[in-house]
Structures are given as C-alpha cells and as structure tokens.
Amino acid sequence: MSPADGHDWRRTSPLAILFFLGSILKALVKNATQVIAPTAAFFFAFGGDTQTKIIIAVSAFVLITGTVSVLRYLFFRYAVADDAILIREGIVNKKQLDIKYNRIQGINTEQSFIYRFFDLVTVSFDTAGSAGSEGQLPAVKTDFSRVLRERIGHAKPSDSAADETGAPAAEAAPILKLDWGDMIRIGLADRRAFLFLAIAAPLFDQLSEELGEVITRAVEDVATDVAALGPAIAATLIGTGIVIVVAILVLASIVAAFLRYHNFALYLESRRLRSVGGLLTRHEANMETGKVQLVRVKQSLVMRWAERVRLVLQQASSKTQKGGKSFIVPAAAPGFEAGFVADVFDPEAQEIELRFDSAALRRVSAHYLRPRILYFGVLPALLMSTLAWFEAGWDALPLLLWIPLWSVVSWQRWRRLAYHVTGDALLRRSGFLARQLDVFLLRKAQRVTITQSPYQRRKGLSSVRFFLASGSIRVPYIDFDEAQKIRDYVLYKVESSTRSWH
Amino acid sequence: MFENAEIPLEDLPQAEAVEWQPLDSAYRSRLIVDRIITIAFLVAGLIGVQFVPGVDLVRTAVLGAGVAVAAAAMLAWPGIAVPRMGYVIRDKDLVYRSGVLWRSVTAVPFNRIQHVETSSSPLDRRFGLATLKLFTAGGAGGDLKIDGLAAGQAEQMRALVLEKAGASIESR
Question: Which residues pair with residue B117 across a beta bridge?
Fold first, then answer.
C-alpha cells in the first residue's frame, strides 16, 4: 500500500460508467440462476397488475445498476507511477492494485461502438503469474493508452539490440489484412455448428428409426394414404429442422467472426505485434515478440479446404491460468506463416522451413503404434466384448470393431507426428484430422524430461518432453541416443543464452 | 554481434555421463514406514470385515492373500526404486532421474529457475529428511520435486541452486 502519496490520482472519463454497467450486467447474466429466484419471488409476492410490476421491476433494476455503476466509477482512481500503474477501486471492499511495468506482458485495448466517438478505449493488462488479465482501465483516451504502451516498452529489459531503434513509425503498413471472405472462412471453420450436427446426428437417426416403425405400423393397419404420410412429413420436418439449426449456427459463427475480426489488420512494428479488428467493438491486442514462447500453426479440415491457416502465439502462463493469453491470427493464406514466424523470431530461427509437408520433418518411430493400439485398442475392446458376451452373446461382437477403428486413428496420428530440430528451434507436427505445427526457440525451454517405458527401452527409443513457460511439447518415440543429443543441445542453448526468455 | 558458430553435437556435455548422487539412505526406511502405515489400515479393514455378519470366509482368505502379496510388493519396492533415483548438480543445471520400469531423466537449467522451496513432513523430520522443489515458469506442472534428501543436504542444495539461479539472472 502506498501512503497518501505524491501520486497524481486520476479519474477516467465518465463514460467509464458504461463499462461498469456492462460488467455488472455480465456478472448478472453469469449468475442468472441466482438473479431469477429473487425476481420471481418479487413478482409472486407483490400485489398489483402485471404492468405495474414490470414498471417497478424495470425501474428498480435501472436505478440499482445505474447507481452501482456511478458509484464504482466515482470510486475508481488510477495513477501512473515511475515503475507501475496504480489502481484503486471498490465501494465497500477497497482494493489497490500495483501493476509493475516489468511484469506486464501485453496491453490490450477494446474500443466499443460508443467509445469510438469519444476517442476512448478500455485498457487491460496481461501480467505474468496472475489469473486472468488483472487490471483494467476503462474509458481512457486513446493517446493515453499509446503513451502507456511506450512507457511499458521502455521499462522492460530490452530483448535485443534491435529493440529500441527510435520511435515506431507513424502508421506502418499492416503485414496482414483480412477481408469479408476470410470472415466467412473463419465462421465456417468454427467447430460449434459441426459439434451440434455430431450431437444431433444419432438423435436424428433414432427419431427416423422410430418414425419408420410408426410408418410400417400405419401401413400394416391399412390406414389411409394421408395417415401414412403424416409420419413421413414429420421425419422430413425434423430433418429440415436440424439442417436449419446447423445453418443458423454456421451463420451465427460467421456473424461472430465479423463482430470480432471485421477489418482485421496485423502489424509488426519494432518487435511488437499488434492486431486491430472488430465490427462494433474494436479489439486491439498487443504482444512483444520477445515474449512469444510457442507459435502454433493450425489447419482444420475446413480451413484446409478454404486454404487458410490459423496462428496462435502463446506467452508464458501461470499456474492458475493455463495457456495464458494468446495472440491470435484467425486466418492467413498458407505461406504467410513462414515469413511471419521468421519475423517474430528474428534474428533467430531464420532457416526454419515452416511447412506441413516440409522434407526436413522426420517421423517418429512406428513403434509408437504398438503400445497405443494394444493398451487403448485391443485390451479394452477384448475386455468390453468379453464382459458384454455374458449378457448379449454374439451381439457383443461389434464391440471388437473398436480395434480397427482405433488402429486407423492411431495410424493417422502417427503419420502426422514428426519433428525437426534446427540450429535454434524445434518444429513438431501433429494432428489427426486437423494439421498442427508447433515451433519454439530452443533457448526458451524451461526443463527437459526424457522418459523410457520398458517397451521403449527394449527398442532403444524414448520420449522427450520440452517444458515451456506456456505449456509442454512432447516428441514421443524417437531414438534414445538422438533424444539425449537433442536434450544436451537444448540445455546448451538454454544455458549459454544471455537473452531473456520472457 | 550475434554469433552462431557450429558446435559438433558430440562435444556438448552429456547429461547422462555423470556420477549420480544417491538419495539419503534413510529415505528407504522412511518409505517403508509410510507403507507399513498404509498396510496397517488395509489389514485393519480386513479384520473389521470379519465382524460383518454373513461374510464368506473363503472370500476373505482370498482377499487376505491379495493384501499379503500387495504388502510384500509395497515393502520391497522402495529397496528397488530408491537406488534408481538420483540427482546431480552440474555447473549450469540440475539433473534428476527416477523410475524403475518407466524411467525418466529431467534436466532443469539454473537460469530458468524461478524459486526454490524445501519442505519436510513430520515423518520426514523423524528420519532427518527433506524435499527440495525447483519451480520453473509455466502452468502445466512447472516444478521438479526431489524427495528423500538429508535435511542438511537439501538446505545446502537450496542455497546453491539459489546462488546459481541468481548468478545466471545477474549475468543476463
């Protein structure tokens, strides 16, 4: 706690009330069940006609949330110190946040539709070792956020000599722009619609089966043609209904993509990544390239068909917040990632060949398949079918189909698993239906573990796991000697590195 | 200027070619005592079952035999597993190995260590043992735990690791 100090405590713009209102509404929606009960009780207990009730309820709601928002705004103060941002907030429970500049990993800004007219943004800070982004400054001037960013950029230990080469260019050209076609691609690639289809499919199956029975019965009863047609129409209707729901979900995904990424532009200026985009609320995300722990290039089946890849740049995460806040490039034409990753890692990892089908990628040993198929395919299938045999007899036999099915899945996974170690980076390919490439700088490893199962030991194989500040990457079933060499090389890289890893 | 001289892989120091330091010999006894307590609970449960009316004697006998086999394995295991555990402190990292069937070797460079912790349970203290924990950054299980060190040894290691980690930070 700083004393009643020399800090210049400031209030944000009164429009921050909107921000607080928004966060109260969000909290209410999150705790909807707790909100509904008292509301229902009120409606029940309070006499009078419905109209009066609604008027009273709505005005009470507006009054309470409005007052709380205004109070929260009035109690919210911030100050910019030499080494930290200080935030004081809270009406009843007061709290003060000291966010040290050198702990800040990135600054993200959001500009809602209304804020745009007043040149205001909401700034949120990503800090290492905290759950979620911990501090937020609502409704501050856009210029102020820029000043803040500059300040934080200077406060952190410089990552390389190339860092502080003058002020950033006024407005550099974006290295990537997404158009409306990309929004549709991003929306289509969204998994939710397909997830629904997957869940609905067996349901649909069962329904049509039942309906089929109804139809046959109707026919057997020598009902009229019209009566027999009824169930058929119902089946068609249900089918159409599911198709419509999927279509709506796909449409919603596309709308969501527009809302989040409309006019998406990606900038890389003096080792800082910046992305802006969004239809109503403009989101701006920032990340220092030096803080990137891992780059993930992902291509789902839809994205592959749409000829796009998705890029995720991970930064250090804390124990409570897995995965950390990532910097996301939702869609880019294949080929973009190679140059982009080279720029992000510059001057390191320049020679890396970032392609799914790169000839440099080496597959892991095919011995990967045997224990996998045995322990997760053959054994459970035999066990389950034996147990089911007592109950169902020969009907349990189809359970054995799990074995070929699982084998095909494992084989496909094995085909994808490949790795390549360059002078200063490691590349790993993986995936089943989607394809994924993970790249990280060797010097950013935190720990390396080599494990050997008895089977691996017999075959002279081992698995290596590289622990990064953002998670771990495992390269299974590679030659033991090779694994040791890679491990020793990674240790050499880490231990001889004088650069900061974060 | 950035340099990137080629270094032959064979010339790199090998983490495997080291003298493994064994854990404290009291650790085996400590594990055995720990397991005796577990077995005592199992046996007590088995005896307790006898007082439940309608319990089949043959089944209890089978169960008892199972417990006996498990107990024997549990008591013998520390004698096999503990000698396989070991660590070595090198100039720039700490390497720890463990596992009999599934073996693993973990290397933690000092310049990646965030903080160090020693701890000891009451049972540990009876045997003069302590646990050393090395924390590195990262969400997923970002720490290395070494059980069964002599208390004084753990304390020395903590100081040494801290010193090395600190030195690597300063020279950054």
Answer: B133
The amino acid that residue A189 corresponds to is A
Pairwise CA distance, residues B90 & B92, whole Å:
6
Token pair, residue A449, equals: 């573990």
Among the partner-chain residues B12, B16, B102, the one whose CB lies closest to the CB of A453 is: B102
The alpha-carbon gap from A419 to the nearest alpha carbon of chain B, in Å, equals 18
Say which residue the tokens 């329904």 belong to.
A207
The answer to whether residues A234 and A169 touch, using CB atoms and an 8 Å cutoff, is no
Sheet strands (E) in B65-142? 86-89, 93-98, 103-109, 113-119, 129-136
Phi, psi for A284 (deg, rounded to 5): -125, 125
User: In this predicted structure, what is the pLDDT of residue A196?
Assistant: 67
CB-based contact A488 B9, cutoff 8 Å: yes
Residues in chain A closer than 8 A to B99 (CB atoms): 451
Q: Cα(first)–Cα(last) distance of chain B, in Å?
A: 16
Contact of A471 with chain B, judged by CB distance below 8 Å, is answered with yes
pLDDT, position A200:
64
Q: Please tell me the distance from the alpha carbon of residue A150 to that of residue A210, in angstroms, as a whole number.
A: 66
The CB density around residue A290, as the number of other CB atoms within 10 Å, is 21
Among the partner-chain residues A452, A485, A494, the one whose CB lies closest to the CB of B112 is A494
The CA-to-CA distance between both ends of chain A, in Å, stands at 27
> In this structure, are residues B134 and B89 in contact, taking their beta carbons and an 8 Å threshold?
no
pLDDT at A460: 94
d(CA B162, CA B158) in angstroms, rounded, equals: 6
Q: How far apart are CA A36 and CA A388, in angstroms?
A: 46
Q: What DSSP element (H or E) covers A197?
A: helix A192-220
Neighboring chain A residues of B106 at a CB cutoff of 8 Å: 447-450
For residue A438, the surrounding DSSP H or E stretch is strand A435-441
pLDDT beneath 50: ranges in chain A: 1-3, 130-133, 156-170, 223, 323
The list of chain B residues with pLDDT below 70 reads 1-11, 15-17, 139-142, 167-172
Pull the structure tokens for residue A468: 């990064």
Question: Could you give the CA distance from residue A12 to residue A314 in angstroms, rounded to a whole number?
Answer: 31
Nearest Cβ partner for B13 among A453, A472, A488: A488
ipTM of the complex: 0.85
Structure tokens at A383: 């066990």
Judge contact between B111 and B92, C-beta under 8 A. Answer: yes
Calculate the average pLDDT of chain B.
84
**Structure confidence by residue, pLDDT tens digits, B126-153:** 999 999 988 888 755 558 899 999 999 9
Q: In terms of Cα–Cα distance, which of A136, A500, A492, A86 is closest to A293?
A: A500
User: What residues contact residue B47 under an 8 Å CB cut-off, 6+ apart?
Assistant: none
Q: pLDDT tens digit string along B86-95? A: 999 988 889 9
Name the phi and psi angles at A115, rounded to 5. -55, -30
pLDDT at residue B13 in the model:
73
Q: Does the distance separating the beta carbons of B171 and A498 come in below 8 Å?
A: yes
Omega prior to A347 cis, within 30 of 0: yes
What is the structure's pLDDT at A124?
82
Query: Helix, strand or coil for residue A30?
Result: helix
